[in-house]
Amino acid sequence: MTTLRIALRNYADFENALGEEARLFEAIHPGAYVELLPLGISELHESALAEGGLRDGRFDLALLVTDWLAEGISGGALEDLHRWHANDPLPDWPEGWARSLTRPLVFGEQLSSIPWHDGPECLVYRSDLFNDSAHRTAFHAQYNRALAPPATWHEFEQIARFFTNPAADLYGTVFAAFPDGHNTLYDFALQLWSRGGEFTDSSGHPQLTTPQATEALDFYRSIVRDPAVCHPRSPQLDSTQSGDLFLAGQVAMMPNWFGFAARASRAGGALAGKVAIAPVPAAPGCPNVSLSVFWALAIGAGSRNKALAWQFLRFVAGPERDLNITQHGAVGTRLSTWRNSALQAEIPVYRDIESISLGARQLPVGREMASFASVIDRVVTRSLTTHASSRTILEEAQSEIESKGLVLA
Asked: What is the dihedral of CA 128, 133, 137, 142, to 10 degrees?
């Protein structure tokens, strides 16, 4: 018996989808056993990369968020997949995927991983609430404009305030502001980019003291700390928990991952037919932006079962398996999945994922992204728990970045 050990995030949709793929793979590969090892997101990074689990062979494969890939490549933790693809090609690679999903996986001449679960950031909203005639009449009377998905952050705040009704257990919006090294960074990126700002200068050095960064943090902290606009549990929520509140009907709209819109729209669910997506709001005069951060499967450089691991990657990346994981709430990554007419009929938001993904931005690439994310975690935590000015918080974070010599390039 040959065992493939796969580290992954402990998220039910991931575990269910990858678990089914594992059992089907075992059925056509007698003598193979796939062991799934679900871990918390911080523990996953520590075990697979920081502590060398992929480099020393404790894990044969790992499901990694794209933020970590540069660190994995530079640290010698990830197997270069190009040679495996050359000998036993992955069908339709790379033409069968959007370039926004293949480009971030290539580092120089090395292919770090293959896409497994996508879901660019978008505005997910309750179309039933926005289309309700009573709400539309009341909103127009209050704001003298039609109720529609917000195009600007000012409109976003107005609409969130309009829908918030704690007595009815409904809040205008929710953010995943728990400092887990991920969603605070992602939220801040959207706030910054949608105001025309950037994380780094042209040489890859982080720059957090720009006017756009101060404006972004000012707005974010004012929204999250206002219970008349935002769900009060936001500072304690990670991304999956914020999505669960939306699925429970407690949130009118949220900037979040496409996967939550897809999950909420599944036939038979409480919100089926009641969810739609739109672009993330932006400051006046600035273009809409989205963020593409996705999950990819990588083979550990220290694996002693690389040939079987590659067969597993080829199996899960096939059109049938990529499509079928959508039944568990995961989001397939192939263009054939996104364009599948039956899937679009069942989950209408899939009609829009390709256009959102193609225009989505990626975070800066660098092995020090995890350290930078920790700095942003502390920025957001201070902004939500102290009265220090946003300018002061960002200046002190900039000093920390410079003292550590962090570069994101």
From this structure: -20
CA trace torsion 241, 243, 248, 249 (10° rounding): 140
Contact, 397 vs 184, CB < 8 A?
no
Strand partners, 278: 123
Query: Token digits for 206?
Result: 């982080």
210 alpha carbon, distance to own chain's centre: 25
- Can you give the pLDDT at residue 267? 78
Nearby residues of 192 by Cβ (< 8 Å), 6 or more positions away: 198, 199, 212, 213, 216
3-state DSSP call for residue 329? coil
Nearest by Cα to 104 from 90, 94, 96, 91: 94
Please say whether the beta carbons of 400 and 375 come within 8 A: yes
pLDDT at 141: 98
Residue 115 has a pLDDT of 97
Residues sharing a CB contact under 8 Å with residue 356, sequence separation 6 or more, in sequence order: 120, 122, 258, 277, 279, 290
Q: Which two tokens stand for residue 233?
A: 């549990």
Environment class of 187 (CB within 10 Å of its CB; exposed 0-12, middle 13-18, buried 19+): buried
In three-state secondary structure terms, 33 is strand
- Cβ–Cβ under 8 Å, residues 313 and 111: no
Q: What Å distances lie between residue 47 and 12, 39, 77, 348, CA to CA?
A: 20, 9, 11, 38
Q: Which residues of the chain have pLDDT under 50?
A: none
Q: How many residues does the chain have?
A: 409
What is the Cα 113 distance to its own chain's centre? 17
Q: Spell out the alpha helix ranges (H) of 248-288.
A: 258-264
CA distance 22 to 187: 33
Which DSSP string corresponds to 67-99?
GGHHHHHHTT-B---HHHHHHSPPTTTTTTB-H
List the beta bridge partners of residue 9: 39
* Closest CA relative to residue 163, chosen from 114, 224, 230, 210: 230
Which residue blocks in 292-368 are alpha helix, DSSP H? 306-316, 319-324, 335-338, 341-346, 353-358
